[in-house]
Specification:
The complex is a heterodimer. By secondary structure, chain A is mainly alpha-helical. Chain A has 8 helices and no strands. The longest helix of chain A has 25 residues. Chain A is globular, with a radius of gyration of 18 Å. Helices cover 82% and strands 0% of the residues of chain B. The chains are: A mainly alpha, B mainly alpha.
Chain lengths: 174, 147
């Protein structure tokens, strides 16, 4: 980290290598579009490089980087309408059990739809908690909010997602 | 275990942070104690856990292997064009230079304009006088001619 701050490119490349997968995954779940997520990940990494000299270490590099990514993502979404990709099953389909594969696909679609319905800040908190395994403190740093606010966001997010999933269950979708 | 007593409503609100292992001390003890004696809240906790497990199953596409290449290419390009930490200094110096030049130019051209306006005024006065003189002459010659 210190070597990267001193301008050592190889050290920064190592940071990119370490965080690119997680950041891309987070941004993909936020914008639901591969090319937008790649563009945002690249922009966040480059912005981090530009601002690295001013990084004081009040938070971890990871949450600082995610904060940059979050801001870029929110800005992008206010500038243009989200363009969701066609739904695809990302887990490998089970050729021997097509019915199980079909049910899995339906479940994934239902979860994606439930996440998509959430307000942006609730979705961000939930994605960081479930998929990035961040603590409430880390989520607070990544979103620029208090831990109390994150607790409230997550409670509402989980309640809303569960409500949507319950409706899908009642309809027999999942 | 403390003697914190909670009702189902309070526990339901605390189940998400409890599941995320974010509850500490008396709050965690209170939930644990309540769950031990409340099958309804235990069922609610199991349902919450199952739904969150459902979320975890959904994957994302793999990140392109070219992403890191693209990021580093852009970073290298920036590093070549402007040394790190130098950009802000150059920006500040440029701004200061522009202000200084503007003030200098203002002072220089301001005094120049003053001189120029004095000259123009003087020339205008001379021209006006000469016009009056010539008019007088013309008028005089007309009068003379008229005579």
């Amino acid at each position: 980290m210190l070597r990267a701050q001193a301008g050592e490119l190889a050290a920064f490349e190592e940071l990119v290598r370490r965080h690119q997968r997680g950041l891309f995954s987070y941004l993909y779940r936020m914008c639901r579009n591969t090319s937008d997520a790649e563009e945002l990940t690249q922009a966040a990494m480059v912005r981090a490089w530009e601002k690295l000299a001013g990084f004081r270490g009040a938070s971890s590099f990871k949450t600082w980087l995610y904060r940059i990514g979050t801001n870029l993502c929110f800005n992008l979404r206010t500038r243009r309408k989200p363009t969701e990709e066609l739904s695809e099953t990302l887990t490998a389909p089970d050729a021997e059990r097509p019915e199980a594969a079909f049910r899995q696909k339906k479940r994934e679609e239902a979860v994606r739809a439930a996440l998509a319905c959430l307000p942006e800040d609730q979705r961000a908190a939930l994605v960081l908690s479930i998929y990035q395994d961040m603590s409430y403190k880390e989520i607070a740093e990544a979103l620029g909010k208090s831990v109390r606010a994150v607790d409230s966001l997550l409670f509402r997010a989980k309640t809303n997602v569960r409500k949507a999933l319950a409706e899908d269950r009642a309809k027999g979708i999942i | 275990m403390s003697n914190v007593s909670m009702n189902c409503g309070q526990v339901k609100r605390l189940l998400p942070p409890f599941l995320d292992e974010e509850l500490l001390g008396r709050a965690r003890d209170g939930v644990t104690s309540h769950l031990a004696s409340c099958p309804t809240c235990r069922t609610e906790l199991a349902a919450l856990k199952a739904d969150m497990g459902l979320l975890e199953q959904v994957g994302t596409p793999e990140v392109t292997p070219f992403l890191i290449t693209r990021v580093m290419a852009e970073v290298r390009q920036q590093s070549r064009s402007v040394p790190r930490g130098f950009g802000r200094m150059v920006g500040t110096l440029t701004a200061a230079l522009v202000v200084a030049v503007s003030i200098g130019a203002g002072v220089f051209f301001g005094s120049g304009l003053a001189q120029a306006s004095t000259t123009v005024a003087a020339n205008s006065t001379e021209a006006a006088v000469s016009y009056v003189e010539s008019s007088d002459t013309t008028m005089y010659s007309l009068m003379a001619g008229g005579n």
